Amino acid sequence: MHPEILSFFSEMVSEILRIVGVSYIPLIVLILFRAGSLRGLMNFSTEEKAERLGDLCFDTRKEQINNKISELLQLYYHNALVLPPGRSIQDIACYLHQDSESLEVLLTIFKNLTELGLQSQEFQLILLFIQ
After folding, report:
1. Is pLDDT at 67 greater than 90 in this prediction?
2. Could you say which of 23, 49, 66, 85 has the lowest number of CB atoms within 10 Å?
3. Residue ranges per structural domain of the chain
4. Could you name the domain of life of the organism this protein comes from (predicted)?
5. What is the dihedral of CA 90, 61, 30, 111, to 10 degrees?
């Protein structure tokens, strides 16, 4: 693997571990796995590589938040969730993270939803948003 890519991943892994700890290693593995599928990455400039890898990291985190929101809503509504017209899980997630490009914000939201679940402040905001 190219040194620039290794450096990027090293910094990303260190940042994730600093914010949420070792319990989120599966998230790191998922991001690394998806990065391996980026074709032609070596043909891009350093800036383009960083941008594509950064987008991949943020998109993966946002997808994980979407999945966790869906899981918690199903749990809360006993698998009988019916979202209001015009609302989707993705709308709820965008409301929650405001399309943030901050690694710390996204990881904190995911951590709170995962560890505190239905009692998290984030989940309470979700309930207010969909009502």
Report:
1. yes
2. 85
3. 3-130
4. Eukaryota
5. -110
